[in-house]
Amino acid sequence: MTTLTRDRGTPQGSAVSPVLANLFLHYAFDAWMDREFPTVQFERYVDDAVVHCVSYAQAQYVARAIGDRMSQVGLELHPVKTKIVYCKDGKRTGAHEHTAFTFLGFTFQARGARRKDGTGFTSFLPAVSTQALIRMGAVVRSWRLHRRTGHTLADLAAVINPIIRGWQQYYGTFYRSALYGLFSRINAYLLRWIRRKYERLRAFTKAKASWRRVTIACPALFAHWSWCRSAW
């Protein structure tokens, strides 16, 4: 085995790595975009970026220019993640290979929406991504709520409410109904907890009746109960 002393880069997982990457890309990408394409808006978070173009031709030109710029500074664009996306909605009805993208845990795509007068239309909107839902679902499973029969409902609420509120505040900013399925799963675990903890409530109908009484008497016990009644 040979040990080599590295003279470049940062350690994988190091706390300083994202800070240095952000500083580097500020000059390598942000400042360069401002100079070369002052009218093109963009967002960047560490090494992920979204660039807004007004036409397919402009998008192709800017993408090539960014690729060249990354090569100049010793980087390269991800061959799979880098793509031109058509923001399809009720007014932009053309066809394109890619009509959705994911950024910072949100998937942007055509979704149904409602105007203030109640009429529906199709808009290009963000909602929690499938990948983020899978990660949150894994966290919910790790709680093993239905097995914590030595605790009270208040105990369980104290443990999971801070996490649920964090999800609500971030992922619930846009299209919060996309979280209803996750909250329903949490409720299903809590209902299983009731059936395990109380022998007299082993029957589903009895447990469900008890569940309704609790949610009516203590509607704010769990964070998602007060946030979305339809998730009950």
Total strands: 5
Q: Which strand order do you get reading across the main beta sheet?
A: 3-4-5
Give the % helix. Answer: 40-55%
**Main beta sheet:** 3 strands, antiparallel
Shape: flat
Chain-averaged pLDDT: 90
Order of helices and strands: HEEHEEEHHHHH
- Measured by DSSP, the beta-strand proportion falls in 5-15%
Cα-to-Cα separation, first versus last residue: 58 Å
User: What are the segments in which pLDDT stays under 50 over at least 5 consecutive residues?
Assistant: none
Kindly provide the radius of gyration, computed on alpha-carbon positions and rounded to a whole number of angstroms.
24 Å
Q: Helix count?
A: 7
Structural class by secondary-structure content: alpha+beta
Can you describe this structure in just a few lines?
The protein is 46% helix and 12% strand.
Can you walk me through this structure?
This protein is of the alpha+beta class and 232 residues long. Helices cover 46% and strands 12% of the residues. It has helices at residues 17-36, 56-72, 130-143, 153-171, 180-197, 204-217, 223-227; strands at residues 42-45, 48-51, 101-103, 106-114, 120-128. The longest helix is centred in the N-terminal third of the chain and has 20 residues, at 17-36. The termini are far apart.
